[in-house]
């Protein structure tokens, strides 16, 4: 996360998706607009899931640079740069933090 701040999700803290797929689809419905289609955003949800599962550290500039490099390798067909998906990934991490372990499906 940028500048050591913890970003607050726009959603209530007690709102927990039943699984990450449900979260991704609901979040996408809120975010989609213009050039940001599913083919661009889905890799960011997958990236959030895998980096969360790998317990990547958050909150410092060094980590942000590493995540940006990793995004470039992992983004597949997404046309979006790290700066464009960072907030989505951070929000997804917060959602994953609140989900029961059984609801998180790493594929």
Shape: globular
Q: Mean pLDDT, as a whole number?
A: 81
Number of β-strand runs: 0
* Multimeric state: single chain
Radius of gyration: 13 Å
Helix content: 55-70%
Profile the largest sheet.
none
How many helical stretches? 4
How widely separated are the two ends? 25 Å
Q: Which residue ranges are poorly predicted, with pLDDT under 50 across at least 5 consecutive positions?
A: 1-16
H/E topology pattern: HHHH
Proportion of residues in extended strands: under 5%
Q: Give the structural class.
A: mainly alpha
How does the SSE layout of this entry go?
Layout: H1 20-31, H2 38-53, H3 61-74, H4 82-98
Describe the structure in your own words.
This protein has 107 residues and is mainly α. It has a domain of 71 residues. The protein is 55% helix and 0% strand. The protein has 4 helices and no strands.
Brief sketch in words of this structure:
The protein is mainly alpha-helical and 107 residues long. It has helices at residues 20-31, 38-53, 61-74, 82-98. It is globular and about 30 Å long.
């Amino acid at each position: 996360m940028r500048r050591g701040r913890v970003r607050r999700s726009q959603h209530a803290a007690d709102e927990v998706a039943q699984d990450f797929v449900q979260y991704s689809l609901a979040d996408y419905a809120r975010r989609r607009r213009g050039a940001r289609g599913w083919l661009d955003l889905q890799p960011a949800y997958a990236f959030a899931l895998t980096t969360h599962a790998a317990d990547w550290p958050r909150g410092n500039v060094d980590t942000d640079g590493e995540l940006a490099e990793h995004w470039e390798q992992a983004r597949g067909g997404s046309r979006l740069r790290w700066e464009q998906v960072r907030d989505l990934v951070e929000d997804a991490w917060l959602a994953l933090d609140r989900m029961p372990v059984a609801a998180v499906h790493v594929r």
